Every structure is written in C-alpha cells, then in structure tokens.
Amino acid sequence: MNYLLAIDQGTSSTRAMIYTVHGKLVTSSQYPLTQHYPQAGWVEHNPEEIWQKTLAAMRDVVSQVSVDQTIACGLTNQRETTVIWNKKTGECLAPAIVWQDRRTAEYCKTLSSFESMVQEKTGLIPDPYFSATKLKWYLDNIPEAKDLAEKGNLAFGTIDSFLIWRLTSEHLHLTDITNASRTMLFNIKEERWDLDLLDFFKIPESVLPKVCASDSNFGIIDKQWLGKELPITGVAGDQQAALIGQGCFNIGMVKATFGTGAFLLLNTGAKPVLSQHKLLTTVAYKIQGQTVYGLEGSIYHAGTTVRWLRDSMKLITHAEETETLANSLQGNEGVYLVSAFTGLGAPHWLSVPGATMVGLSLSTNKAHFARAALEGVCYQTREVCHCMREDSQLDISLLRVDGGMAVNSWFLQFLADQCQLQVQKPRDIETTAKGAAILAALGSGIFNSLSDLHENWDIEQTFNPQRALEQVELDYRGWVKALQKAKK
C-alpha cells in the first residue's frame, strides 16, 4: 500500500492527512490556530505557530504509516494571507496578515477609478481581501522590510510559499498559479506577474515567488523534518483544492465550502469569465499544462459566526447544537443576522465592519440567534449563485458542499430551498485536503488524467428543495430588508 501526505493549512487550524493513492482517508491530525485581533478589523496569525503546528501534524500522521510507503505530499492553504521573511535568515518580520484583515480598506477606496484595469488583468477587484495591499502595507510600515526589499533579500509569500520555503532543503521560493491568482498582482490571462501592477503598488519583483502549475514538483521536503525525503508534487489554494476534491472538472460544476468563511467556485472552463456582479475571476487549476478558470463568490463569515455564538456569546457549547436549536423553531419570526463582523464579501464588498441583528423581541432566545446565523449564510449563498448564473449564462442546478458546516442537515436543507437547486454532500466532507492529495497523485504520475479520478468522489446525501416557494421568498425578502439596514 502506497500513501499520500496532504497538508491543509487553514484559517482556524492546521491539519495533516494520510490518504491511499485512491483517495481513502487513513489518518489525520489537527491543531487549532490562534487568531489575533490587535485592532478592530485587523486579523493576524503568528507564522511561527503555523510552521510548528504544521510540522507537528505532519509528524503525527506519518508516524502512523510506513514512511517508506509515503510517496508524495500535496499542500493546500488559506489563500491571500500574507507573510514576509528575510531570505538570508528565514526569519519572519511581522505577524501574518490574514485574508479577513481590513486594515487597508481606506487605501482600497482610493483605487476605485482603477477597478476596471485591475479586474481586466487579475479578475479581482481592489479590496483588502487580496495580498497586494497587505504587502504594500508591510513595505510602507516596516522599515526593515523596505530595506531588505531594496537589497533583494525580502521574500513575500502566501502560506503555501512560506511552508515550501521552510520544508525544502533548498529553501525554494515558489507558489502555484491558483495562489498567485489571488494576490491582485498576477495577470491571469498572460499567466505572469504583471509589471504594471507591481509598478502601481511599488512592489519590487524580487520579493515575489516563482509561479508553477498546480501539479508541478515544488521541491523535496528535507529529511530532517520527517525522517525521509518526500517530494511536494501538488499545491493549490484551499478553495481550488476543494473544487478538485469535489471532482468538479466539467464546465458548469460548482462547489461550496462552508468553513471559516463560505466560498463558491464555478468551473467556467478554458476562458476566464469577467463578472458584472463583482464576483471574482480566478484560476481554478493548471493541471497537465491546461489552465482552467473559475468564477468565485466569497462570503467572509460562515463558521466564524457559529464560533461567535459559542465563544463570545456563550449561547452554545458545541457547533452541532445549532442544528437542534434551528429545528426547534417553526420559522425565523423576523430575526435576521447580517454577519458583517469584518465587512461583507461578494457581491456586496462592504468594507466597514459591523454585524447587524434585526427583529429582536422579548421572546427572542438563543434558538433565534442560532437559526439566524445559519440562515444568513444560506441567503448570501443564494445571492452568489444568482450572480454566477447571470455572469456565466450556465445552467447551475447542482451544488456540491463540503467543510465543517456541511455536517448540519438543517442548514443544507434550508440551503437547497433558498438556492432552489440540489445540494450534494460527499461521504468525505474534508475535500480540501483530499484535493491536495489528488494533486500530489497527479504530480507524481500515479494518475495520468482527470478522467481517472471520477471514482474517487462518493456521494453520501442529497437535499432537494422542499419548502413552499412562497415561504422561501418571504424569508428572503426579510433578509434583503435586514441587509439594507446593515449597509446604512
């Protein structure tokens, strides 16, 4: 039996998994990651904590199988989160700025006149979400970073680049095309760092990693870390990895990952589709020389809203309780939560932090809070699905879901009703890590084509629309009113 190691470095935790070459999960290890909120709208991670917990999780799982039978490693990561380090020493110069961070919001407002140019080149819109303004903030606010950059000794990376640098004996400075496409510095049509944008943001090209296809060889994990040299043969950002793990290789297939945030990604094929609804055009993957594009809608808060109910509000002890609480109500009774804790993502792109709860009364209890938290994610998903249909002109009737919230059947049924499509839940909901393993298998030559992978996806449960359409629309109209209040 041969095995694949998958590293899934996420926003709230770091995980490592061992899969068989046919995609069956053998074992896993997970460590929570500390979130730091030094100011309102700021979100940071300690990159050294990321490194140590990634290493610990890798060692945990590799020790449970024969290391000699582990043949390759795949890596997937939280995207846009930005790290800088000294190329000479490997030392990080500052906390990692997380994708949710909004510290550059005011600067991004000054870029509105350049929005069409940025979108045409990168598929993105000027927003603090992406790495470019985070990197600019480092260069503007950390004198050592600017000095090192001028000497050619500063390295910028998203988390994949940072881990590849640390893991490989050669300290390779690499990224894959999916992560590069999320920086707002990468020309997705020409597949290169865009010199005009680098000049615009005053970012020297020397700080950037080399961009590789998703199934490339990203170097060898040094023997000191796992007791054996191991090639890294696949890398993709977490949402693209989930698309691969969900087997969405055909045009028109769409997946939704409900983790810390919620992310919908639609396979649009070989040509990028620019959105008229402020969705994001991104590289879905580049495998065996073929670049495939996607249309993405990002919802900032999904699992974080449930965690807020648990950790800050103390309304629940475990996330699973939200299903029972939501089920205990016949309806939402006019209670809505717009979870704009750090702003709103697609299609609104509201940068001002401020969650809004409407419809509270003396009879409101924790069940209403739980239901409102779940419903809010469904309404935002519905909005994104509508935009995807409009932009792509594709018939979207199926949504494959994964992530932590996908264990909640009440949530998935409400989602099917609001979006008016079939929701499919796979047997393995951790498809992000599975996608990394699939890439590792492709990159190491275990599989020769994407058609060989269809048998790796296995459905567990299907949810079809059930509620009366009149009630579905009534609930949604209440959400629209709540959203208008939040935007004022």
From TrEMBL:
Residues 255-442 form the Carbohydrate kinase FGGY C-terminal domain. It comes from the Bacteria. Pathway: Polyol metabolism; glycerol degradation via glycerol kinase pathway; sn-glycerol 3-phosphate from glycerol: step 1/1. Its EC number is 2.7.1.30. Keywords: ATP-binding, Glycerol metabolism, Kinase, Nucleotide-binding, Transferase. This is glycerol kinase. The lineage of its organism: Bacteria, Pseudomonadati, Pseudomonadota, Gammaproteobacteria, Legionellales. It catalyses: glycerol + ATP = sn-glycerol 3-phosphate + ADP + H(+). Belongs to the FGGY kinase family. Residues 3-245 form the Carbohydrate kinase FGGY N-terminal domain. GO terms for molecular function: ATP binding; glycerol kinase activity. Pfam families: FGGY_C, FGGY_N. Transmembrane segments: none annotated. GO terms for biological process: glycerol catabolic process; glycerol-3-phosphate metabolic process. It is an enzyme of class 2 (transferase). The keyword Cell inner membrane does not apply. GO terms for cellular component: cytosol.
